């Protein structure tokens, strides 16, 4: 029970309190670039969460059983980006052959993922915090869900924002930033949710 | 080959192709590390160093890289230079590094660095490539300095750690929400200058 509590806390803290977009500012290019339509935002969040969880698991194994015993920890940036890129490429090839339907829906996003900071951040944080295997996977899942939540909130607002009358210089990107600022202010309210951390 | 003069390439990097305000890419550190001017400037310098060195390395190696494996090679070169920067900062700028170590490591995922290795450095000789990397880096440094100057001044009442006003005018500005707000307002301001005086198009289009 104690372990479950701990993992649940980790999940809540990764998804809401330390939300990747609004508190840690990761994955902003994707967040602002792809949040114009609800459909894309949903597809993107599903693909991202799946890739984050699996690549966190693979990187944990590589980190614990290869890099730490061989004292290669200083190479973590190069190794993690290689692991993530190789995994994404493999997933792309396998999905194209085995489930063309799914590939048609989500394949476009896979190509964008290979070198994205939000995907790379998960293994780096896991390694830095010294999480166990279960903790790493739960942290990745929580972060992915938090990112998905942010994407969906933003997409639903931006669909309405298209129709709003915005002053000339604020059109497009700047207005999206101001919107994100207001959502971030709301997310600040989550910061007291778990006191002992 | 690029036909612009070196000066023109340099100025385009700072103004016309400004990473943050015009292209709106590589935004993560622009908000994450800019709650103090010192961190913003250090981050800008780190990015400028990586971008210049990556452009130089790629342009020197460009005739030996097979086109089909160019992207993995670019990633390898970028991550090597980021590792150099990361280790150097961990050794020589420890107080700053403690706050923004994660974001230094994530320079490796910068769209602007990979894009310029691909579109510029792999097609041009060493000197214009260095100028291009330096110009883009200066543009990034300029953007980060602007953002962090306003955030630190309004949020803490200090500039580079020195007290300017004795109260804290807007605590909001050093919170995450203030970061998004500052970038949005500054981007709109530069848009306004572009539209008012040069008849340019707004950013992010």
Percentage of residues assigned to helices of chain B: over 70%
Low-confidence stretches of chain A: none
Instruction: Give the SSE string of chain A.
Output: HHHHHHHH
Mean pLDDT of chain A: 85
The domain count of chain A comes to 1
**What's the total helix number of chain A?**
8
Separation, N- and C-terminal Cα atoms of chain B: 26 Å
Question: What structural class should be given to the helix and strand makeup of chain A?
Answer: mainly alpha
Shape of chain A: globular
- The counted number of beta strands of chain A is 0
Mean pLDDT of chain B: 86
Overall shape of chain B: globular
Regarding quaternary structure, what we see is heterodimer
Describe this structure in words.
The complex is a heterodimer of chains A (197) and B (205). Chain A is mostly helical. Chain A has one domain (14-192). Chain A contains 8 helices and no strands. Chain A has helices spanning 2-17, 28-33, 38-67, 76-98, 100-113, 117-129, 133-161, 173-188. In chain A, α4 packs antiparallel against α5. Chain A is globular, with a radius of gyration of 18 Å. Chain B has 205 residues and is mostly helical. In chain B, 70% of the residues lie in helices and 2% in strands. Chain B contains 9 helices and 2 strands; from the N terminus they run ααααααααββα. Chain B has helices at 6-14, 19-23, 28-32, 37-61, 70-92, 94-105, 111-121, 126-156, 176-198; strands spanning 158-159, 162-163. Chain B has a two-stranded antiparallel sheet. In chain B, α4 packs antiparallel against α8 and α5 (70-92) crosses α7 (111-121). The radius of gyration of chain B is 18 Å and the shape is globular. The two termini of chain B are 26 Å apart. The mean pLDDT of chain B is 86. Chains A and B meet through α2, α4, α6 and α8 of A and α3, α5 and α9 of B.
């Amino acid at each position: 029970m104690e372990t479950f509590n701990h993992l649940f806390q980790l999940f809540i803290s990764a998804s809401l309190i330390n939300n990747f977009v609004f508190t840690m500012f990761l994955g902003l290019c994707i967040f602002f670039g792809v949040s114009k339509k609800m459909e894309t935002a949903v597809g993107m969040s599903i693909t991202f969460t799946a890739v984050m969880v699996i690549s966190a698991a693979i990187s944990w194994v590589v980190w614990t059983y290869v890099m730490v015993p061989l004292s290669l920890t200083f190479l973590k940036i190069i190794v993690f980006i290689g692991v993530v890129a190789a995994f994404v490429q493999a997933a792309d090839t396998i999905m194209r052959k085995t489930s063309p339907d799914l590939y048609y829906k989500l394949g476009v996003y896979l190509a964008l993922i290979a070198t994205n900071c939000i995907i790379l951040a998960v293994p780096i944080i896991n390694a830095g915090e010294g999480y166990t295997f279960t903790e790493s996977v739960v942290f990745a899942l929580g972060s992915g869900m938090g990112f998905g939540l942010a994407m969906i909130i933003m997409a639903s607002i931006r669909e309405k924002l298209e129709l709003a009358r915005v002053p000339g210089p604020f059109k497009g990107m700047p207005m999206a930033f101001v919107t994100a600022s207001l959502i971030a202010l709301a997310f600040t309210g989550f910061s007291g949710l778990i006191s002992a951390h | 080959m690029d036909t612009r003069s070196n000066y023109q390439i340099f100025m385009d990097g700072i103004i016309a192709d400004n990473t943050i305000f015009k292209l709106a890419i590589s935004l993560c550190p622009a908000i994450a590390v800019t709650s103090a001017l010192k961190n913003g400037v250090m981050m800008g310098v780190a990015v400028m160093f990586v971008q210049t060195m990556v452009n130089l390395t790629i342009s020197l190696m460009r005739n030996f890289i097979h086109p089909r494996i160019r992207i993995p090679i670019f990633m390898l070169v970028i991550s090597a230079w980021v590792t150099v920067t990361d280790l150097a900062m961990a050794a020589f700028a420890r107080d700053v590094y403690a706050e923004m170590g994660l974001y230094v490591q994530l320079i490796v995922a910068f769209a602007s660095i990979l894009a310029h290795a691909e579109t510029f450095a792999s097609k041009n000789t060493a000197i214009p490539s260095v100028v291009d990397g330096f110009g883009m880096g200066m543009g990034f440094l300029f953007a980060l300095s602007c953002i962090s100057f306003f955030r630190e001044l309004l949020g803490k009442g200090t500039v580079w750690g020195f007290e300017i006003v004795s109260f804290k005018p807007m605590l909001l500005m050093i919170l995450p929400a203030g970061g998004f707000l500052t970038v949005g307002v500054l981007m709109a301001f530069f848009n306004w200058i572009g539209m008012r005086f040069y008849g340019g198009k707004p950013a992010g289009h």
